[in-house]
Each structure stands twice: as structure tokens, then as C-alpha cells.
Design brief:
Elements (H helix, E strand, L loop, with lengths): L5 H5 L4 H5 L31 E3 L29 E5 L14 H10 L4 E3 L6 E3 L2 E6 L5 E6 L13 H13 L15 H5 L10 E5 L2 E5 L7 H4 L19 E6 L3 E6 L13 E6 L3 H9 L5 E2 L14 E5 L2 E7 L10 H10 L2 H4 L6 E2 L21 H14 L8 E7 L3 H14 L4 E7 L16 E7 L6 H4 L16 H11 L4 H16 L3 E6 L1 E6 L4 E2 L15 E2 L11
Parallel strand pairs: 2-11, 2-12, 16-17
Antiparallel strand pairs: 1-5, 3-4, 5-6, 6-8, 7-8, 9-10, 10-11, 12-20, 13-20, 14-18, 14-19, 15-19, 21-22
Helix pairs in contact: 8-10, 13-14
């Protein structure tokens, strides 16, 4: 997922200042700290007889918000009438096939559901519309048995045909950001590229409620992929939804979601209504939180003015903020040696905030067990000048000729700061920076059409595997907006897909090293998220590395007075 802008999360407040006001540890429940990053598949694979039911799903910590537990006892239907969330003002795309921002993904958790959904604690896959599933012994065929009581909000039954139609529609959509993730399915990439037919795509309907998927090779993270909203059950006209909530009204100030009464698990969804307010006003958002008018603020606030200090939660995200070069014919920056000269001159401490944030010397957020990759942490201007001199000589460019890097910016302060830092660093190399301004709300969609060499990006992985990052640079991927292509990189990704043991990470780490050695990306930081929510009043919300909190698990707790006999 593309992060909706780190500046909207932190609003130019230094992380060091934030930490003074938060009670949660910086890394929260980070994947990097978990000593048990489990692979779902192993060398032996499940046989066709080993069916995984909803009672045996992948989650190690399934949370039922209505269970008979201490936390569950907080739930009272009178308190579930309206939950208020504040998010940044933005033109949200709520089509799960084309949405790409993290803030859109959060909303889509309430509107759409697929075969699996995220566990709210550890984000492992939980059975959703898939009642059970089984995997063939060779790991290439996944067969899903669907619930027979799952309906769209208009009463239409959700069947195996619904999922095949949804996924085929995703593959066919030229604006679908994530469609290439289905390239793991036999025939899907060929059909997406216009080189095959729809009938050859390995998605089969065995009967009304049985779906079979044939993969090119074993894919350890396939169930994690299917948690993503884009793989949900989606109708062509988008008027009916498959998730626990549906939008009943919307305008430029807010939109309202109400419980979907036809959702198969509606009885276990505590909230009756969610009001989502669109606001970037720090003062107003802080006021809404302080007065109790908002239950969750996922937008700009004055942290220092919050009355309840421990309601501000800062956590590292499974993501990376970076700059990338768009490869264009005729530009010197499509040559790796010119890019390498620039990266040697980058003042890494300065551009990464001198330790104020979580530095990202490499591109992939390092999972437990992932091999060490040699990234960038020290600048060497002498080496940079030598590489630049040799590159000019090799490509027949005069040593005195000024080279220009066109950098696409959105008018925000953060990118302006990057530009100033790089301008000073690259001047000794005979390189100038020319700014190309692109409107903030069009920045992502106009990368391909903007005449620029350098672009800003901030990415959160959608599943706990390095492929969630490396897919952005695979040749032919719909996520690859850099146009960078490297056969060795692609080959290593293919090799990695054949393994579910330590070789999987080994080949992915080698692929990442190829990417870094090509000087294609300027890695900056691993972003942090800021959420303002009082967990003494809201249940079902947990800090996690994806910063995704499924709406179906949220509920409001009665506020208990600390004074005896007073409510």
C-alpha cells in the first residue's frame, strides 16, 4: 500500500517530541521483533486430505470481540450506536481493484471481504468467506470451500463464480494497482498482458461453493495475499458490498457506514454505525478527541495538547520511505553508474533526519530470519566524484557539462527539504536539480506521464514477506512504476518462489542486493504511524506493523468512573 503521506501522519512534528507524549513502545507489535515469523507452508505441504477449517485457521491469536472474556464483557449494545473516526481530507478511491493508499485500505476492511481477512492482533490470515481450504501435496493447487450463507448487501449470494469473476475483472482492469500479484496463478500474467485467454487462467469453479486455484509454483504467502481488499468478492457495479459495513451517505465532509445486516457474521460485529470525518485541521481534530466527539483520529493533531497523553500511539510500520529513478530512454540516469555516483554523495544521516526516525539503509523492512543485505549508510564524495568522472568518460559526456536531475515534488515541505539536501550534495558532481511540481492528489497517478527522473514514494508491505517490497521492481509488475528492469533480479524472484524454507529468504535477499547495487532507490526511513485512540474506551484495536485495524472487530467500552457509585 502506498502511504497517504507521512507528513499527514506526523504533520511535521519531530518523532523525538512525539515520544515524550506516548505510552506505547515505538515498535509496537513489529514483525521484526517476533522470533516466530512462521511460514505457512513447509517442505512437505498439505495433502488433499488435510483440510484447514475455520477452527484451524492460520491465526495464533484469534480474537472474538463478543467472546465471554474480560474484554468481551465491556460490550454493551447501547454503546455501539456510533463510532467516530477522523481521517485526512482526500479524494478516496473505494473501488478495491484500483485503491492503493493505506488510508483507503483501512476503510475497505469494512466494506469488502474475501476468502480470508486479517487477524486484528497479528494480521495473520483468518478464514472469512472461505469456510475451509486444502492444499495439494505439491503446493500448487489450493481448493477453497465457501460459506453457503455469504451474501452481498443487495442479497445476491456470494459463490465460487463471484470470486472468479472478481479476480478476472481485477486482471482485466488496466488501472488495477495490484493485479500483477495474481501472476502467481497459472495463465494470469499471460491474460493480463494480452497473450492468453480468460479460459486459460487457473481459477476453476468445481461447484457452486468450491473454488480451485492452480499456481505456477508453491507460494508460501498466498493466503496472506488473499487478505488484501483487492481480492475480495466484488460486484461489477460496486453498488453492493461483501463486508460487514456499507456506506449509507457521503459528502465532502464525512461519510457514514452502517452495519450490513446481510453480512454472514453480522451478529458478531459490535458497531452499528461508523461516521468517518474528513479533516486536516489539527486544532479541530485535537478538540474532537479531547471532548470525546471522536473515538479515533488518524489524521493531523497537536499531540502536545491532548488531554489524555497515552491515547497517542506511535509505532514503526512494515514499510519504507524512499526516492526512485524512473528509467527513460535518452536520460543519463537510466545508467547505473551515473546513479551510483549520486548515491555515494548522498549525506545519509542528514536526509534520514539524523536518527530522529527509523533509518532504512536497505529497501526491505528486515523480517526475522532475513539475511543481511549491504545497504547505504555512509557517503563518500571522493568516491562519488571518481565514479562520475568514469561514467562521463564511458558514455562520452564532457566533464564540464552540467547534468540535470528532474525531481517531481508535490509542493510539501518534506520533499522540498529532500531537494535542498540533494542539491548541495550533488553540486560538486556537476549535477543540478530541477523541480517539477505535481499536485498532491495526482502525484501517484501521474508518475508515468510526468517528465521527471526522480520520484518520492512511501510503501507499506501488504503481507509479511520481502516480496511485498520487491514486487515493486519486478519486470512487468503493475506496481513497477520505475520502469526499471533487471533479468538477474527477476530470475532470483522466480527462484525464491520455488522454496518455502530458508532458501526463500536467501534468494530474495540476493535480489534486493541486485536492486541496491544498481543504485535505483534512495532509501530514507522506515515510516512510523501516529494514531490517537483511547484504548480504555475502544476495544478490538491493536498496534500492528501494517497499521490496519479491521472495523469488524472494533467496539466501544462503557466509560467507568473511578469514583464509587458514580457513572
Amino acid at each position: 500500500m502506498v502511504i497517504r503521506k507521512i507528513s499527514l501522519k506526523l504533520k511535521a512534528i519531530a518523532l523525538s517530541a512525539l515520544i515524550l507524549f506516548v505510552s506505547q513502545p515505538l515498535f509496537g507489535q513489529s514483525i521484526i521483533e517476533d522470533p516466530k515469523v512462521e511460514e505457512f507452508l513447509n517442505d512437505e505441504f498439505y495433502s488433499d486430505d488435510d483440510e484447514i477449517t475455520e477452527d484451524q485457521d492460520l491465526s495464533q491469536d484469534v480474537v472474538d470481540p463478543l467472546a465471554d472474556s474480560d474484554e468481551g464483557n465491556f460490550i454493551n449494545k447501547e454503546y455501539q450506536k456510533n463510532f467516530v473516526m477522523v481521517i485526512p481530507r482526500f479524494r478516496y478511491d473505494l473501488n478495491p481493484h484500483t485503491a492503493s493508499y493505506s488510508s483507503e485500505a483501512q476503510i475497505l476492511t469494512g466494506l469488502y471481504e474475501g476468502l480470508f481477512t486479517y487477524n486484528p492482533v497479528n494480521l495473520e490470515p483468518e478464514n472469512a468467506i472461505a469456510k475451509s481450504y486444502r492444499i495439494s501435496r505439491d503446493g500448487k493447487r489450493w481448493t477453497f470451500t465457501l460459506r453457503d450463507n455469504a451474501l452481498f448487501s443487495d442479497g445476491t449470494l456470494i459463490t465460487a463464480q463471484s470470486f472468479r469473476d472478481s479476480w478476472i475483472s481485477l486482471i482485466e482492469n488496466p488501472n488495477a494497482t495490484y493485479s500483477s500479484l495474481l501472476d502467481v496463478v497459472e495463465g494470469a500474467m499471460e491474460y493480463r498482458l494480452g497473450q492468453g485467454s480468460k479460459e486459460d487462467v487457473g481459477i476453476y469453479i468445481l461447484d457452486k461453493f468450491t473454488l480451485s486455484v492452480k499456481l505456477k509454483s508453491p507460494v508460501a504467502h498466498f493466503s496472506r495475499l488473499l487478505c488484501m481488499p483487492c481480492f475480495s468478492a466484488v460486484q461489477e457495479n460496486l453498488k453492493a458490498v461483501s463486508g460487514p459495513f456499507m456506506i449509507t451517505s457521503a459528502n465532502s465532509e464525512c461519510f457514514i457506514m452502517e452495519k450490513n445486516p446481510l453480512y454472514y457474521d453480522a451478529e458478531k460485529v459490535p458497531l452499528e454505525k461508523i461516521t468517518i470525518v474528513l479533516s486536516d485541521d489539527e486544532s479541530e481534530n485535537t478538540y474532537l478527541m479531547n471532548t470525546g466527539a471522536a473515538n479515533w483520529v488518524d489524521s493531523s493533531v497537536y499531540v502536545q495538547k491532548l488531554l489524555i497523553k497515552d491515547c497517542a500511539h506511535v509505532s514503526a510500520q512494515y514499510g519504507t520511505e524512499y526516492l526512485f529513478f524512473k528509467n527513460q530512454t535518452g536520460r543519463v540516469w537510466q545508467e547505473a553508474d551515473f546513479r551510483a555516483a549520486l548515491l555515494e554523495a548522498v549525506p545519509w544521516d542528514e536526509i534520514r533526519g539524523n536518527g530522529s526516525f527509523v533509518n532504512a539503509p536497505t529497501f526491505v523492512y528486515p523480517l526475522y530470519g532475513y539475511p543481511k543485505v549491504n545497504g547505504y549508510s555512509k557517503s563518500d564524495i571522493t568516491e562519488a566524484m571518481f565514479i562520475m568522472k568514469e561514467a562521463r568518460k564511458k558514455h562520452g559526456i564532457s566533464q564540464d557539462e552540467k547534468l540535470v536531475v528532474k525531481y517531481a515534488v508535490d509542493g510539501g515541505k518534506r520533499q522540498a527539504d529532500f531537494a535542498e539536501i540533494l542539491k548541495k550534495a550533488w553540486e560538486p558532481l556537476g549535477v543540478e536539480i530541477e523541480l517539477v511540481t505535481v499536485p498532491n492528489n495526482e502525484y501517484l497517478s501521474k508518475i508515468d506521464s510526468t517528465d521527471a527522473d526522480l520520484f518520492y514514494y512511501c510503501w507499506i508491505g501488504d503481507f509479511a514477506d520481502p516480496l511485498a517490497f520487491l514486487e515493486l521492481f519486478r519486470t512487468g509488475s503493475t506496481l513497477n512504476c520505475s520502469r526499471w528492469s533487471n533479468p538477474q533480479f527477476d530470475e532470483l524472484l522466480e527462484k525464491a518462489s520455488l522454496y518455502t524454507d530458508e532458501n526463500h529468504f536467501k534468494y530474495l535477499a540476493q535480489a534486493e542486493q541486485v536492486l541496491l547495487d544498481s543504485a535505483e532507490v534512495i532509501t530514507i526511513i522506515h515510516p512510523v504511524s501516529l494514531n490517537v485512540i483511547d484504548l480504555n474506551q475502544v476495544g478490538g484495536w491493536y498496534i500492528n506493523s501494517f497499521d490496519i485495524h479491521p472495523f469488524k472487530y472494533l467496539y466501544l467500552k462503557p466509560v467507568k468512573s473511578k469514583i464509587k457509585d458514580v457513572v
